[in-house]
Amino acid sequence: MFKSLKDFLNKIFLFNIFKGRSNLKLGLYGPPNSGKTTLANRICQDWLGEEMGTTSKVPHETRNVQEKEKINVKSGRKEMTFNLVDTPGIATKIDYEDFIKAGLKKKEAQERAKEATKGIIESIKWLDSMDAVIIVLDSTIDPYSQVNITIVGNLAARDIPVLIAANKSDLKKSDLKKIEAAFPQYGVIGVSAEYGDNIEDFYDELIKLMK
Amino acid sequence: MLTLQYVPMDEIIQLDSDRKVTKLLKIIKQDKIVMLEGRLSNKEEGMLIERTMEEIDKKFKGIEIASLEPNVRKDIGSALRDGIFKLFFGDRRGITIMGPANIIKEIKRDPNKLQLYTSNRRGRK
Ligand SMILES: Nc1nc2c(ncn2[C@@H]2O[C@H](COP(=O)(O)OP(=O)(O)OP(=O)(O)O)[C@@H](O)[C@H]2O)c(=O)[nH]1
Ligand SMILES: [Mg+2]
């Protein structure tokens, strides 16, 4: 009796701070180069009229967590306001020589690698402050990587709602089924952040996720 | 030559997460491949990535890691065993392979198979 009363009061209390908090945080997480910033730019352009950050075919372009406040998304009669957080792609290895191969000078390549390691640590630290997360995956790549499993597992352990965006659906090699098979317990939506394919359905799912 | 070092569950089970991660990284940084009995928790995996990032420099390029979990069978016997196992080990059954990225380029997983793509350029002087 006492325990359930305490639980009840706790719930009301939690409910209140949840409601009272100024803004919900929606995080974009995933491995490097999956299209997180491209998707962030599309969302920000559609609802805010500005960009989130720079994108590149060279991985680890985003090396600091970026946040845009008070984005109001509408779909049909439903709407939702949140802060959008773009994060550096999470990886277990970084080789500056890969950046040299991509055309960077040695110094720039080493600097990029150094910043990228710090960015990954920042991404992981920010996981705790998310209210919901979109995991952005490149749907042309095998989804069974330990990094993906670690991200999903950490969000599940914290009870943070997750939607998986199977990005780059415009590419021939895109395999939505494979992503769905890898994460059967989550909603998966195919999108092309670059070209906007299926973006209306994406907004619809996004609002459902956060309601 | 490639060295595989077996780390049995009872060698790390009594360590806290921090010491566990430290121990595993130490072996990996000696250019060895770790065969860990069991799996790390989500939190420990996150810590392993953070610690790896802190250690990356010109020589150490990070790690490759993959783990397999046992097939979930739902007969009563294994369900009972699962229950007991979870109680003691938090269901960390399975196997984990991890090694330095300069030696293992990629690990692909087939449900019950791990394929290690090794590098001929070891990055060692
Ligand atoms: N074809 C195609 N390319 C895409 C799509 N989305 C992103 N890209 C490309 O993929 C590359 C990486 O995109 P980013 O948005 O920078 O990826 P990111 O996930 O932010 O990467 P990091 O910041 O490194 O973690 C860029 O060259 C994009 O143009 C898509 O839907 N289709
Ligand atoms: Mg980015």
* Helix proportion range of chain A: 40-55%
* Portion of residues within helices of chain B: 25-40%
Largest sheet composition of chain A: 6 strands, mixed
Biggest sheet, spatial arrangement of strands of chain A: 2-3-1-4-5-6
- Work out the count of structural domains of chain B: 1
CATH class of chain A: Alpha Beta
Average pLDDT rating of chain A: 92
Question: Quick recap of the structure?
Answer:
The complex is a heterodimer of chains A (211) and B (125). Chain A is α/β, with parallel strands linked by helices and 211 residues long. Helix content of chain A is 42%, strand content 20%.
Features of the shown structure:
heterodimer, A: 211 residues, alpha/beta, Rossmann fold, six-stranded mixed sheet, 7 helices, 42% helix, globular, B: alpha+beta, four-stranded mixed sheet, two-stranded antiparallel ribbon, 6 strands, binds guanosine-5'-triphosphate, binds magnesium ion
Provide a descriptive summary of the structure in words:
The complex is a heterodimer of chains A (211) and B (125). Chain A has helices at 2-20, 36-47, 96-101, 106-126, 146-157, 176-182, 199-210, and strands at 24-29, 66-75, 78-86, 132-138, 162-167, 187-190. By secondary structure, chain A is α/β, with parallel strands linked by helices. The two termini of chain A are 31 Å apart. By secondary structure, chain B is α+β, with helices and mostly antiparallel strands. Chain B has one domain (3-118). Chain B is 36% helix and 27% strand. In chain B, a hairpin with a 2-residue loop joins strand 5 (104-110) and strand 6. In chain B, helix 2 crosses helix 3 (42-55). The A-B interface holds A 90-96, 110, 113, 117-118, 120-121, 124, 127, 142, 144, 146-147, 149-150, 153-154, 156-157 and B 42-43, 45-46, 49-50, 52-54, 56, 58, 61-67, 101, 107-109. The structure holds guanosine-5'-triphosphate and magnesium ion (MG).
